[in-house]
Write a structure and sequence with these properties.
four-stranded antiparallel β-sheet, 4 helices
């Protein structure tokens, strides 16, 4: 498994990313995640829609909470051709509880807690923390990656406007 050191930091301290880096133009790697009801969701099964993959370390942290809420608000204006997925290592039960408490109704949360298949397939596993790095990817209807932002400092927010603009161009 490929390891990339020092590309991202947590409070200034360097971390190691595990897995192969996904770049613009790549086919989105296949990975199976768990929905809030524990049913499996394969990334490939979502082809036909533009996907915004919002990757967060944990919904129970302030920046991840903010990121998911901002994408949830933005989703109202995107229409049915764009789907926003928030992916974390949180347990599906915790994701469901958090969404209910936060009023999240337009973003679907998916869990990678079981085997970190998504995290390693997308090169976003933080080795030292066994959490996802903060990143946003946009995948077109055919399954090709069209936008990637790996947030360099895990405690910072992504560029929402750039990700949303990239997704809107694909509809």
């Amino acid at each position: 498994m490929t390891e990339r050191k020092g590309i991202v930091t947590f409070k200034g301290g360097p971390l190691t990313l595990v897995g192969n880096e996904v770049k613009v133009g790549d086919t989105a790697p296949e990975a199976t995640l768990l929905a809030n009801d524990l049913s499996p969701v394969q990334i490939g099964s979502l082809r036909g829609k533009v996907l915004i993959l919002s990757c967060v370390p944990s919904l129970d942290t302030a920046v991840c909470d903010t990121q998911t809420r901002k994408f949830n608000r933005a989703a109202a204006a995107l229409g049915n051709d764009i789907e926003i997925l928030t992916i974390s290592m949180d347990l599906p039960f915790a994701q469901k509880r958090w969404c209910g408490a936060a009023g999240i109704d337009r973003v679907r949360t998916l869990s990678d807690h079981h085997d970190a298949a998504f995290a390693t397939a997308y090169g976003l596993l933080l080795k030292e923390l066994r959490l996802l790095a903060r990143a946003v990817l946009v995948v077109d209807k055919a399954g090709k990656v069209q936008y990637v932002e790996l947030v360099k400092e895990v405690t910072h927010e992504p560029n929402y406007e750039a990700a949303l603009a990239a997704a809107k161009k694909l509809v």
